[in-house]
Amino acid sequence: MIDGEQQGRVRRLRRWLRPGVGVKRWLLAMLLGLTILATAGALLIRMLFLGVDPASPLGQLFELASLNFLPDPARPLVVILVGAAIFLYGLWRLLNALLEPFPARREPLVELVYQKRSLARGPRIVAIGGGTGLSVLLRGLKEISSNITAVVTVADDGGSSGQLRRELGVPPVGDIRSCIAALADVEPTMSSLMQYRFPMSESQPGLAGHAFGNLLIAAMADIAGDFEEGVRQSNRVLAVRGEVVPVAGVALNLNAELADGTRVSGQSTIMRTRGIRRVWLSPDHVEASKEAVEAIRVADLIVIGPGSLYTSLLPSLLVPGIRFAVEAARGLRVYVANVATQPGETEGYTLSEHVAALSAHGVGHLIDIVLANDDSSGRVPEGYPAEPVRIDLPLDDARPRLELASVVDPANAHRHEPRRLTLALLRLLHEHPASRPVAPVRSA
Fold first, then answer.
1. Which of 40, 56, 221, 257 would you label with 172, given CA atoms 20 to 30 Å apart?
2. Are 281 and 363 in contact (CB under 8 A)?
3. Kind and range of the H or E element at 18?
């Protein structure tokens, strides 16, 4: 009788043969090679047998080995069954021997292989933005595709990122760190390590408030001698599903003009400011990441947001090379509206005002579809001065087209739920596949 452990091994062996793992084709190649070798061996044995006296001891051994004592229909059947049993047993023991040195995993290796193969066939997706909203989106997207490119803003000037920017001259890495942690195909402990912040301490004031992941990316950039290459190496070290790339290879400064004509600078200041009329970047002419431009060019789906309107989305879209690439892209372009307003930055904004702000900055025409939340059942956090974004765009075929879905986190009415958002985006991609030809990208 087969015990539970043996049954589990048999099930895992069967899983290696299911579609999508990519093993059966090579097993067939092995079987073909073994069949050819067996045929050659049979021919050799036949040649030797023809020259041997059947009554001699060697001839009797040949008679026994060739199963001549069995009737003709049974002989090939017995050989096939014995050969198949020996082959499968050897394959089983080979896989166990190969996997034995590896530490125990949360799930069988065959499941990880199947998952990798399946994700590699997923749609090509580019997500543009920064902050918490983008990392929430990426956690959902990485479950359906590994062909993901996160294009992340580099205009942050506050907190650990701002300090490293001032002291080391490295572009801000906080949003990049959060996106890498969201896409990293590693144990949860490593993700927690990337997000870990050193506590405030008088004995070690240099580390106080810094996120470990920020220091890691800054160190990789210093080792590589180039910021973009440092981010690439960080992607590889943490086994990111897809790629996280900065929108540009240099730090950007965000500036804003308020409704009363006042001008302010710095992302950390602007995000707390009300009455923003417009924002712009300095330096004026900055070269967009070539990886980001190429990913946008061939993407099936380009997702803008969710994220802070003026301090995450626009700082990415206002980089000329990124804007021109999105304009020329063949893929479906979806703006994911925030489910809630942000104190200061978009306080009191309706959905139409979010879209109008994009249009006022010359990027509204880049959007094919606006995806907004229509579910008001999420739990509202106590004491948070925000409110749901009121939907006041018409449900018609006007461009951009409005699409509604339940994408809010039931536990937090001010956040998207990764899986719900991903499923809504997949539905839109299925209903509105890319139809535009790939156009040449204008130079900045």
1. 257
2. no
3. none
- Residue 152 token pair: 């992340």
Distance of CA 313 to the CA centre of its chain: 19
Contacts (Cβ under 8 Å, ≥6 apart) of 436: 329, 330
Sequence-ordered list of residues with C-beta below 8 angstroms from that of 343, at least 6 positions apart, any chain: 272, 385, 386
How far, in Å, CA of 78 to CA of 81, rounded?
5
- Neighbouring C-beta atoms of residue 420, cutoff 10 Å: 18
Query: Which pair of tokens denotes residue 371?
Result: 């995806």
Residue-range domains of the chain with CATH: 4-116 (no CATH), 123-431 (3.40.50.10680)
Q: Is 363 within 8 Å of 329 (Cβ atoms)?
A: no
When comparing pLDDT for 188 and 242, which is higher? Answer: 242
277 phi/psi in degrees, rounded to 5 = -95, -45
Per-residue pLDDT tens for 185-226? Answer: 765 777 788 888 888 766 666 677 788 888 999 999 999 989
**Cβ of 387: how many Cβ atoms within 10 Å?**
15
Distances from the Cα of 442 to the Cαs of 293, 313, 439, in angstroms?
A: 11, 21, 9
**Short-list 186, 301, 192, CA closest to 240:** 186
Widest distance between CA atoms in the chain: 113
Region for 307 from its dihedrals, namely left if φ exceeds 0, alpha if ψ lies in -120 to 50, beta otherwise = left
Q: What is the CA radius of gyration of the chain?
A: 30
Across residues 275-289, what is the average pLDDT?
Answer: 92
- Return the ∠ at Cα 378 (arms to 373 and 383), rounded to 5°: 115
125-to-98, 117, 291, 295, 367 alpha-carbon distances in Å: 35, 17, 13, 8, 15
